[in-house]
């Protein structure tokens, strides 16, 4: 099965995750690059106005792959807006897809909201959705500290703590019959 990883990352966590996955399964990887410089302010404005920011053209022929793994942060319980732009633009080339995120928090119902958003955008559900939550790296009394969690940069040691979840996600994809 030919797998492609497409990722967006603002502060580096999802880039690190995407690169780790690509190395594990030896597949091609492609970043989403924005036309304008991203700041914390533009994240908030995109969230409020539900904008789809401009991104550079993706030259990789997505339709040549059997499965695309989409990797991006979660903002306000939705996929990061640049990934939304990519999906809107490329949904007809996506044969099958799944989504994984290094997100921040343990928000009830967030995974279902993400699944519904992806289904609405593409017209069919993802094969798998997985949230790796930064807050799980912190003692329980700090898990709701929005600033601390949102600014945390994961390390390769941190990634190993999520190995089981990552393997479950990859197994789910690789077990899927096309
Ligand atoms: C403005 C903002 C809103 C966020 N909203 C959420 C959210 O609703 N749910 C969540 O789990 N994480 C949320 N996060 C946390 C990010 O998803 C998390 O920090 C992620 O690891 C950042 O990924 P990156 O380093 O690849 O950009 C938010 C972060 C920011 C900056």
TrEMBL record:
InterPro entries: Flavoprotein-like_sf. Keywords: Plasmid. This is Flavodoxin-like domain-containing protein. The lineage of its organism: Bacteria, Bacillati, Cyanobacteriota, Cyanophyceae, Acaryochloridales.
């Amino acid at each position: 099965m030919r797998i492609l990883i497409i990722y967006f990352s603002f502060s580096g966590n999802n880039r690190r995750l995407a690169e780790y996955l690509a190395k594990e399964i030896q597949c091609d990887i492609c970043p989403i690059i924005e036309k304008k410089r991203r700041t914390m302010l533009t994240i908030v404005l995109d969230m409020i106005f539900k904008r789809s920011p401009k991104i550079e053209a993706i030259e990789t022929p997505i339709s040549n792959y059997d499965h695309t793994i989409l990797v991006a942060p979660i903002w306000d319980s939705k996929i990061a807006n640049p990934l939304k732009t990519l999906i809107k633009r490329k949904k007809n080339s996506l044969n099958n897809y799944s989504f994984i995120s290094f997100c921040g928090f343990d928000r009830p119902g967030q995974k279902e909201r993400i699944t519904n958003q992806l289904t609405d955008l593409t017209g069919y559900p993802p094969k798998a959705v997985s949230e790796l939550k930064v807050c799980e790296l912190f003692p329980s009394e700090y898990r709701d500290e929005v600033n601390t969690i949102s600014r945390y940069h994961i390390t390769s040691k941190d990634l190993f703590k999520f190995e089981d979840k990552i393997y479950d996600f990859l197994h789910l994809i690789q077990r899927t019959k096309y």
